[in-house]
Amino acid sequence: MSTAAFDTPIDDTGTALAGPWRQPRQMLHAQVYDSHASIHDDATAQKLGFKGGTIEGPTHFSQFAPLCERLWGQQWFETGCLSAHYRSAAYEGEEVQAIVDKPADGVRHISIRMVKRDGTEVLRGSASVGTDAPPSALDQRLTELKPLTDAVILRDITVGMATAPQTVKMDADQHMGELYPFSLADKLKVITEPSPYYHASSPWGRPIIPMEMLSVLFQHVSKQDGLPVRGPAVGLFADQEIRLITGPLFVGESYRIQRKVVALSGSKRTESLWARTEAFDSSGRLVATMLLNSATLKDSYAAYEQEYAELKRGA
């Protein structure tokens, strides 16, 4: 007997599907980033102008899973893609809602968004299935970036830099390190949209890793990459895309990952490193990718003003 992927209540408005209002849990209070607290620590976040420790962006991806599964069924878990530009931070205790546009018959690419009760947009982007889907929201965003100039924190980074391959795995009770001080089992106790597929009852005969936790799987060894980003400094996720190519990915299975710098961009407050992570299974098949814009806050790098001045003098 088949088991339903989710029992999440979904509201069909005719033009869109909307999930229920949820209060995601913040699990990164104890995160250590560059040997210091991160943007998810209340004191650090407030020092940098945020209300408190922020909910990590990919946490929100789980709320879209039931909506996309309603549209595309099992294909969502095998070739699904979520591509999001994070627009405002969410904090523990706030309610947020995931909304996806309904596609015309046969269309496999839609717009998505998440909002707070007051209408503030937390993220917007696209969802799709299939390796031949149209360009994603971040595919499009990459073509519109303003190049980074006068880089300080990222001055030693160049587009095309690649990391050495690393092997990663996520067991159910595995502590995922300083960046992610919890386990998959811990996450599944509080995940906004539980599913039997994340345990034993999946169509693939074994537990699958939720899409939000693929971000953890791919990032938890990122500090060993050796990319010459100057620090210590505080960063945040500004854009993120997770794409399944031959999915799903499984609990307890080893994957080989490699990261490549695909773009550098900047704003008044940040310097951004865009990296694409590729994940391969034991047979060498590409199974998933993640595109991530890690935006480092200039104000969090103590030597920023001094090094910027030196850079301008030497120009």
Automatic annotation (TrEMBL):
Domain of life of the source: Bacteria
InterPro entries: HotDog_dom_sf
Gene3D superfamilies: Hotdog Thioesterase
Protein name: N-terminal of MaoC-like dehydratase domain-containing protein
Protein's organism: Rhodopseudomonas palustris
